[in-house]
Design goal:
- The protein has helices at residues 15-24, 36-45, 62-65, 79-86, 104-116, and strands at 7-11, 29-33, 51-54, 96-99, 120-123.
- It is α/β, with parallel strands linked by helices.
- The longest helix has 13 residues, at 104-116.
- The model has no long low-confidence stretch (mean pLDDT 89).
C-alpha cells in the first residue's frame, strides 16, 4: 500500500466504536457518520473511499447521544438501508466493504445483499460493544 492517507467511511451510532476506529487508523482520514442522513451526505460529498465499514443497528444510542436514523416513512433505518443507498454510488465504493455489526442476522443480510450486487463484503465484528 502506498503512503497516502486512506479515506474511510464509518457508519455506526456508537461513539465508542468511532473512538476505536480513530485508534485503529490514526494516520487515515476517517469520516465519522452516526446516522443514515449523514451517511447519505458523506457518499454525495466525497469522491472515493478506500474503506467503508458499516453497522446494522443504527438506533441503539439515539436517546443517549441524539442520533436518529429514520427513513422517509418514519421507519427506523438500518445498515441494510445504507447498503441499498450505496448502490447509487458504486463508482465511489472500495474493493471490499466491512460489516462490523454485532448483530449476526443483520450482518449476514447486509453481506448477502452486497454480494448479490457484485460487491465483495465480509463480516468482521468489532470488539467494542
Amino acid at each position: 500500500m502506498d503512503a497516502r492517507s486512506q479515506v474511510i467511511l464509518f457508519l455506526d451510532d456508537n461513539p465508542a466504536r468511532h473512538a476505536f476506529m480513530d485508534q485503529q487508523y490514526p494516520d487515515d482520514t476517517v469520516i465519522h457518520v452516526y446516522d443514515i442522513d449523514t451517511f447519505r451526505s458523506a457518499l454525495k460529498d466525497h469522491d472515493k473511499f478506500d474503506l467503508i465499514s458499516l453497522d446494522h443497528d443504527l438506533n441503539d444510542f439515539t436517546e443517549e447521544f441524539g442520533f436518529c436514523s429514520l427513513l422517509w416513512n418514519g421507519e427506523k433505518a438500518t445498515g441494510l438501508d445504507a447498503c441499498g443507498y450505496m448502490m447509487g454510488f458504486k463508482e465511489k465504493l472500495p474493493e471490499e466493504i466491512i460489516v462490523h455489526s454485532s448483530c449476526p442476522d443483520g450482518a449476514s443480510g447486509m453481506v448477502s445483499f452486497l454480494v448479490s450486487k457484485g460487491i465483495k463484503a465480509f463480516w468482521k465484528m468489532f470488539p467494542v460493544a
